[in-house]
């Protein structure tokens, strides 16, 4: 019978970010220099050290194979440009608050994509952000909606409006899309702060390629994804602070044997992407494999850790996943995973479309129409739901039809005696969970009373006794 807490409960994440980087020794890149020209002018060099200060990146850097881009002096790579020449808008004082405008600074209007929490005006689809004295302003989509703390970008008129007087303040707009592109293999990125890039939805401010090592960086306040591993087999992303990005902290796509370890991933989805169901929040991976371990994934406005679409041989272990707006962990239409020894606490209490108390809305850990998944030795505490198992009609994948089978839930501690609704299985009428597809065993539950209907199966809510009579958790305990 499980008594010990998972390993993650007794471990604290150590320092992350540039302060933990090793000393950089190599070719110096001074503030004001064009980094790409310095790289190209030194073809034999393997290490380039960014000097202390603000480096404005006007085009994505493309390092060569085996190169290290680093700093041990607090270098900041920014994709923003200063905005000057503000004028009070001529219409001020006509029955509405004052506003200020600067013109000629926006790019031409471009194709938009992405699903936003506000699906009527879709503010998350546009990439440029405004920062005043380092503070991120909220985008509104019309002049009438402009108020203190917000901005409006009129792409047709090429004008940016703010409601607060910018006089005497530093006003910057993110404009460059990407800081560093995955242009070659075996690159190392360490000791850098990467901020204010106008990355498009699903695009990363920092792109990571095969064999890359991304360690001890801070990636913050970029519009879409902070760190994006794209076809980056065997990449390692470790010891980074990835915070306050507009859509997602870390993304992984079509990349095998990647390690995402020991990162602080927090407060991502600042630009209003759909919380429940459009890859917003902490970490999302698609069509990939590898290890997600020892991370703190905290207070993201979306899912904490999401594997979605043809994931395989995935290990999610020893993470502390707390206070995310949607599921703590979601494993969806994928194959072969081990989810073990995690602390999953306080997740799923976001609001908006797709949020709610039903098991269809997810849980601390959510296994959705996947096969060969073991969920073992986790602490699942005070989430919207405990462990949610879903069987849906989802079509075929590269390793066979997406079905719910060979799912083992064992030796977990599940606390749902206060905020949490239930643990159990929900299913589409066209895709019922096959008999024997899910095993619950050796778990311990705190349910706040033996008559509480904290379990669900075959469309019914159940007490602990009814749940055991249905064939689940016969060797488990509840209190």
TrEMBL record:
The keyword NADP belongs to this UniProt entry's keyword annotation: no
InterPro entries in UniProt: Beta_helix, PbH1, Pectin_lyas_fold, Pectin_lyase_fold/virulence, SCF-Subunits/Alg-Epimerases
Domain of life from the UniProt record: Bacteria
Domain Right handed beta helix: 212-379
Record keywords, A-Z: Repeat
Family annotation (Pfam families): Beta_helix
Protein name: Right handed beta helix domain-containing protein
Organism in which the protein naturally occurs: Kribbella sancticallisti
